[in-house]
Amino acid sequence: MTIYRKDLSPTQIRDFLDYEPATGLFTWRARVGEDPSVKAWNTRFAGELAGTIDRRGYRRIKIHSTYYAGHRLAWIWMTGEWPPEDVDHINLNKGDNRFSNLRLASRSENQANVPAKSHNKLGIKGVCWKPTQGFHAQIKKNGKVRSLGHYKTAEEAHAAYVKAATEVHGEFARAV
To answer: Is the pTM of the predicted complex or chain greater than 0.70?
Structure first.
């Protein structure tokens, strides 16, 4: 499934879709023409919600046999340019494509704005248990892991992570 293709212009996207920035929803625009297939398409799809939600929770919209990520289409719709890198969902809701919930991000910034991994047994972001050393805090930026030390309690380790995340990731820091 292709999601980062940039072969459609903003004008072409606006020809196919309407976008409501306050709700983040895309609807299909009516097509122009006298052909019976155009009339049939308009009867069935014009004004209807565009795309589907994939298994990861992202809205995908198919145009000319290619799937496009809804959040990237929202960005180009509003700015007139394809996003140069990632588009981050501020509130973590992958289906919430309101323009106020989207921001440009590097891959590292986008990865900073994620919750604790589901396989994290402690459920505390940036903290793991090491039987011989106690609670270990660490942070990752641009693919490099930095140790923040070992602590007696999970709360102390998490406090170290929160402090470092704020310094390292700024507005993209997520502590939980």
So the answer is: yes
